[in-house]
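Q: Can someone sanity-check these two? First one:
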Amino acid sequence: MIVASVGVFGTLASAVITQVLTQRAESRRSERGERVRIAEQQAAEDQRKIDQLRSCYVQLNANDRYYRDAMLAYAHALKSGSVDAEAAEVNTARRAQRDTRAEAQLMASDAVLQIESRVNAQLTTAYRHLMEVAGEPDSPTCQERLNRVIELLKSLTAQQGHVRAVMRLEVRATAELPDWYDPEIGPTAHRHDGH
């Protein structure tokens, strides 16, 4: 009787223990699956943000360069006396750059905005001087002012390179800033932190 009772009890206990262990294993599997699903969702969201930022940065970089190049072409045209098409191109480039900057101000990091704002300030200064010179009659003073505008616009190439370096870091196109990066031009101590 005792042996039969122990056997029945053992059989019942074994079934209960097996069921409990199965439920625990299933619960752990479900928790692991949920953690994987959450991690995949987070990775997809991070990638979506990086893709949006990349698109914004591509447009900002392209339109800053377009604006600078259009003003440079206009300055050279003013020097030679042929300005018809270049004036319209400057206005088109200026509008495109302004619209892109408006989007970037909502999406770009503080580090990118800090450097790009310096570029934009110089583009604005060059535009103002260029428009002043465009309204003046040709003279040696006018030619000298155009030379200064041209030099200002050419000097932006290095700063635009620094903006691109930080942009590339932030969209994970590179893991570190290039050796030529100068913290005096760009923000200090900017490192890739995964954001």
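And here is the second, same format, sequence then tokens:
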Amino acid sequence: MKKLILTFALALMSIIGFSQEGGATITITIDNVTSDKGKVLTSLHTSETFMKGKGIQNAETEIKDGKVTISFKNVLPGEYAIMTLHDANDNKRMDFQDNGMPLESYGISNNVMSFGPPNYDEAKFIVEDKDLDLNIRF
């Protein structure tokens, strides 16, 4: 029951928060996509959504000459992390080898590449009252 109430409260806060005008724009550039096949999927996360499904804002972008630019608008001040994936086969999810290693390129904010799954504390950044430009590497 607690999970249901928490989920409802988070959904309501997201709807109310993103229906308001204002906030910063986060522009993400990825310039080392290995091919133009498929799309790049990018999600803006809070600590509550990181590695648990969709982010609070999500984008799907075509690739041109190994480069993409994605923008998240009206981002309220707070702490966030970005996860992005080159979905080369356009199946809307990350594919893995039999040993658990990813088959598709991915990246997170702050360009931290460690063994094991991404960590929110390493990827987090602060949004204040000005726009941000981030470069993420696969």
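A (reply): Looked at the second one. The beta strands are 24-30, 39-45, 57-62, 68-75, 78-87, 106-108, 125-127, 132-135. The chain has two helices and eight strands.
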